UniProtKB/TrEMBL annotation:
Span of domain GTP cyclohydrolase II: 223-392
Stretches with biased composition (Basic and acidic residues): 8-18
Record's cofactor remark: Binds 1 zinc ion per subunit.
Membrane-spanning ranges: none
Key words, A-Z: GTP-binding, Hydrolase, Metal-binding, Nucleotide-binding, Riboflavin biosynthesis, Zinc
EC number: 3.5.4.25
Taxonomic path: Bacteria, Pseudomonadati, Pseudomonadota, Alphaproteobacteria, Acetobacterales
Pathway: Cofactor biosynthesis; riboflavin biosynthesis; 5-amino-6-(D-ribitylamino)uracil from GTP: step 1/4
Task performed by this protein: Catalyzes the conversion of GTP to 2,5-diamino-6-ribosylamino-4(3H)-pyrimidinone 5'-phosphate (DARP), formate and pyrophosphate.
Protein name: GTP cyclohydrolase-2
Organism for this UniProt entry: Teichococcus aerophilus
Cofactor(s) this protein cannot do without: Zn(2+)
C-alpha cells in the first residue's frame, strides 16, 4: 500500500490547482475513501460499509487487536461473525463447505475483473471465546493454526460480505474479517453518546465504491515520470512511471527501442505484461521462472528492435508479497501454487488486465504481439480493448527447484508451451 511519502505527495496534489487525472470529484473521493479504508483495516481499525442490507462494521481478523474489537462491539447491534472464503472455512470446519455461488450480477465483468474474486464468502459464528485477537488470527491464517477453545458454526453471511472481503484483498490482507450489523440511521441520531463518538471516529464508505475501485484505479492511471535507463540487455531503454488518481500503487512501462514508432508505422510491437516478483526478479529465487522471464523478455525485445515490458505492481499474482510468502510455506507443506492461494482464501489469480490495457492505451499502442504462455492474459487484454494480434511463447527451462511450479501452471492454469 501507500508509503507515508506517497501520502504526503497525495496531500500536496489535493491542493494542486491542476491535479493530473481528470476524474469526476465523486470518483476521486470514492477512491480516496477506499484507499483509506484498506489502510485502516491494515492497522487494525474497523470501518463501516454502507449499502443494501447494511451498515456493516468490519475489522480484519489478521490485524484487529483488543481496541479494534472493543470499538466493533460498542457499535454492533447483532452478533459478530467471521467472513471467510469457502476454501478457508472448509479447513476451519474440517468438512466441505459448498460454494456460495457467484457475486451479485453487475459488480464485475468477465475478463476485466480478477477471476479470483468472483465467489461469495461464507460466515462463521464467533462464540465469545473466539472473539480474541490471537484466535481470530489463527482462524484467518492456515500457516498460524492452533487448537481453538470453541468451534464456530456456519451461519448466513451479511449482504455486504463480498465487498468486505474485497476490501481486505485490496489491503493485501488475509481475506478474513470480523463483521457485525450496525443499526441503519440509529448510530448518529439515536445511539448513546459513547456509541455516537465511536461511530464518528470510524471511516464509513459505500460497499459499491469498494467493488468499483480496481477498475476506477486502473482507468485513472496517468504518466507521472520518465527517463532513459540503458540496461545490460538493451542499451536504448526508457522507463515510464504510471500512477493512479488516488496516489496508489505505481506501475512501470519499460520501453525498448521505439515501440510507439513501430506501432505508428502499422506494426504490432512485442509486449510483455510482467507481474512483479520481488523474490524472482530481484533475488534470483529458483522457486519460479520470473527472473529469466523478465531479463529474457527485455533481451528478446532488444533483438527484435522494439517492445514494451509492463512491470505491474501485482506481486504474487495479485495477493501481495506477504501472502505469497505464506503461500510458499503452504507449498512446502505439500500444496501446489494454485491450492496454496485457495487455502489462504484468495483466488488462483487475483490480477486484473485493465491496468496493462490502460498503460498501453496511454502509450498509444493498441495492437500487440504478446509474450506469454498464459491464455488468460490473451483473453483478458482483448476484453479490455487491446488488439492481441499474436502470441509469442515465453518459456524457460526448469531449474530443478521450479519444476513442479511449471508443471502446475501447464496442468492447472492451462499454460501453453
Ligand atoms: N501466489 C503466488 N504467486 C506466485 C508464485 N510464484 C510466482 N508468483 C507470482 O506470479 C507472478 C508472475 O506471473 P507471470 O510471470 O505473469 O506469469 P504467468 O501468469 O504464469 O504468465 P506468463 O509468464 O506470461 O506465461 C509474479 O507476481 C510472481 O510473484 C506462487 O507460488 N504463488
Ligand atoms: Zn516469481
Amino acid at each position: 500500500m501507500t508509503t507515508i511519502g506517497q501520502a504526503a505527495e497525495r496531500h500536496a496534489a489535493a491542493h494542486d490547482p491542476e491535479p493530473g487525472p481528470a476524474l469526476p470529484d465523486a470518483a476521486s473521493l470514492a477512491m480516496r475513501a477506499v484507499h483509506r479504508a484498506a489502510s485502516d483495516l491494515r492497522r487494525g481499525t474497523p470501518v463501516l460499509l454502507t449499502g443494501p442490507g447494511g451498515p456493516l462494521i468490519i475489522a480484519a481478523a489478521e490485524t484487529v487487536g483488543a481496541r479494534g474489537l472493543a470499538e466493533l462491539s460498542a457499535l454492533a447491534t447483532g452478533p459478530a461473525v467471521l467472513l471467510l472464503a469457502t476454501t478457508r472455512a472448509a479447513a476451519v470446519l474440517h468438512r466441505p463447505v459448498p460454494s456460495q455461488g457467484a457475486i451479485p450480477a453487475g459488480t464485475a465483468s468477465r475478463g476485466v475483473e480478477p477471476k479470483g474474486i468472483q465467489e461469495s464468502p461464507v460466515a462463521l459464528s464467533l462464540p465469545p471465546a473466539l472473539l480474541d485477537p490471537v484466535h481470530l488470527r489463527s482462524l484467518a491464517d492456515p500457516v498460524a493454526e492452533q487448537l481453538l477453545p470453541a468451534t464456530p458454526e456456519l451461519t448466513a453471511p451479511p449482504p455486504l460480505a463480498f465487498a468486505a472481503i474485497a476490501l481486505a484483498k485490496l489491503g493485501r490482507l488475509l481475506p478474513a474479517l470480523v463483521a457485525a450489523p450496525v443499526a441503519a440511521h440509529g448510530v448518529a441520531t439515536t445511539g448513546s453518546l459513547p456509541r455516537q463518538e465511536a461511530a464518528a471516529a470510524l471511516l464509513s464508505l459505500p460497499a459499491a465504491d469498494v467493488l468499483a475501485y480496481p477498475s476506477t484505479a486502473a482507468t485513472s492511471l496517468t504518466r507521472v515520470a520518465e527517463a532513459q535507463v540503458p540496461l545490460e540487455d538493451s542499451s536504448e531503454t526508457r522507463i515510464v512511471a504510471f500512477r493512479a488518481a488516488d496516489g496508489g500503487i505505481e506501475h512501470l512501462a519499460i520501453l525498448v527501442g521505439d515501440p510507439e514508432g513501430l506501432f505508428a508505422a502499422g506494426g504490432a510491437p512485442l509486449v510483455r505484461a510482467h507481474s512483479e516478483c520481488f523474490t524472482g526478479d530481484l533475488l534470483g529465487s529458483l522457486r519460479c521462472d520470473c527472473g529469466p522471464q523478465l531479463r529474457g523478455a527485455i533481451a528478446r525485445m532488444a533483438k527484435d528492435g522494439a517492445g514494451v515490458l509492463l512491470y505491474l505492481a501485482q506481486e504474487g499474482r495479485g495477493i501481495g508479497l506477504v501472502n505469497k510468502l505464506r503461500a510458499y510455506t503452504l507449498q512446502d507443506q505439500g500444496l501446489d501454487t494454485l491450492d496454496a492461494n485457495r487455502a489462504l482464501g484468495y483466488g488462483a489469480d487475483e490480477r486484473g488486465f485493465m491496468v496493462a490495457a490502460t498503460m498501453l492505451r496511454q502509450l498509444g499502442i493498441t495492437r500487440v504481439r504478446l509474450l506469454t504462455n498464459n491464455p488468460d492474459k490473451l483473453s483478458g487484454l482483448a476484453a479490455c480493448g487491446i488488439d492481441v494480434e499474436g502470441r509469442e511463447p515465453h518459456s524457460f527451462a526448469a531449474n530443478g527447484v521450479n519444476d513442479h511450479y511449471l508443471e502446475t501452471k501447464a496442468e492447472r492454469f492451462g499454460h501453453m508451451l
